[in-house]
Specification:
heterodimer, A: mainly alpha, ABC transporter involved in vitamin B12 uptake, BtuC, B: mainly alpha, two-stranded antiparallel ribbon, globular
Amino acid sequence: MTKFIDLTLNGISTGAIYAAVALALCLIWRATRIVNFAQGAMLMITTYIASAVINSTGSYVIGLVVALAAGLVLGAVIERVVIRPVENAPPLNAVIVALGLYTFLIAFAGMIWGATPRAFPAAFSIRGYEIGGTRVLFAPNDTFIVLVVVAVALGLAVLFRATPLGLQMRAAAFKPEVAQLLGVRVGRMFTLGWALAALTGAIAGILVAPSIFLAPNNFDPILISGFVAAVLGGLDSPPGAVLGGLILGLALSYVSGYEGSALAPLAALVILVLVLMVRPGGLFSATAERRV
Amino acid sequence: MIAVRQSTLLRSLAIVVAAALILLLLSGELSAYRQLQLAEGTYFFAVLAGLTMLIGLSGQVSLGHGAFLCVGAYTVSLLIADEGWALAPAIAAAVVVSCLIGLPVGAAASRLRGPYLAGATLAFAVGLPALGDKFPSLFDGENGLTINPPAVPSWLGANFSLEHWQAWIGCVGGLIVLFVLLNLYRSGLGRSFRAVRDDEIAAALCGLRVGRMQTLAFVISAGCAGLGGGIYAAVLNLATPSAFSLTLSLSLLTGAVVGGLGSLTGAVWGAALLVLLPNWSNDIAHSLSLSGNVSDNLPQAIYGVVLIVVMLAWPSGLQGGVRALVGSARARWGGNGGNEAKRIESPEGGGEK
């Protein structure tokens, strides 16, 4: 029973991180209909920046703020420079550009920071809480992770549902031409979508880094899980991304805990296929109308 | 000549024979290293041709074809190492096994579209090689399976090198794929695939079973990848789970798109790119004599930049770029290329919209 509780708690905190990455992918999908395979590399870069700032200033908060700012800038620059030209090309072109970007950013990080993994500080203690004399696999830092991700998800929900800016972003994603006619700066909204996604990704990177160490390729599994989570929930739906992240986090935690971690990728495949067979557009998909 | 023009079968046969002659002459002139590269190129071509057919002709995307390459390579390795099969029947068995595994995957895939299909096939590419770790007794876990290199037949003479023979094996496999797909592109089935790609509902109204067509396209392309996997085992003599990572699947997709989707000539460009580009960028990086970290990572950086630049410069891939060049050359110097330009879809030209 203790093991079950441990695995559940562990699943919730990893699920929260998957949810954050899934949210980032979902933001970009909603804005520009592109699956951003460079997301993992982008959040790797911002986490390295955070690490460098924390090391030189000694302050976690300054590192966090700088990384978030760097995320915003990185996302906006990438959208403007390399993504804008392929937004109207066949959809796979953007995927290849994202893959090229991923390869380039990984190599770039390797050039500057080398391949040796580095430790990354956690915001709070990573010693589990003690409940009734037994230590559970859930530490103050995990509480921090869950709270931050919940805050990000709520913040995005408020932005999209309750502000004029969010309405413009939704309009630009839904019908670009019409939105443009009504005075929405569609291009700017796309850039903003990418910037926000990179910001969300930067948060996910900083949250996950203490438990996986910092190295150019270490964030790839997080991206894959995040993508599976986003697809699970339905790429169009932020609540779906959060739910997908939680489901995947819990499921992978149980499978790794009871059956060994070698089966985790296979379990992800089985869950994804089962969900998509019942709902081909993800859990939160709207019923699509098809016309001849 | 007229017969060759009108009969798809004769036409593809003529193309395959011509390609075989060129490869036969070419493979004798190459150094052992280049022969090995040619052999590598052939298994990439086999997978890319199937993948480009799937994406360009049938309109489905797959991020998981590395897994079928894995299935093919493991089938051949197991049959040769444990059962003592000869290479040719083992590769044939690899095609069958890949098709059989492709069937449920394709059936599942036919329900999915766009990013959801991409996600499911991606999970497949990540999940399947994990089986190798789960059943170490059968697949030898992380170490993978090693087989003896294929024996060079004695009738080729004592001086005939192993690399030369491996290049021939690869070329035969690649030509088989080329022949099958050339015919498929011009067959009724190929036209049905195109109809389904362009408009599913209209195709269904014409009596085509959309799901079945998509599953069939997936199975055929899985079979091509399985054959590629068989060649892979014959050339590298090794199958390990880590060789069939997601990176491999993604670079296959890259080869197909950068080569030019839907075009078999594009698959040749893509295969050449996958074999040569890492080598070239390595050479460039090492000729610059830079410091450790920079020169270690420069090849990868160049690779990434080339992908981005090609996609920005030629949105329809290298084959699209070549076609545009040829087209503008024709327009400038006149000539009687009019008929060619008017042909809407040819297998080499590709069926991409």
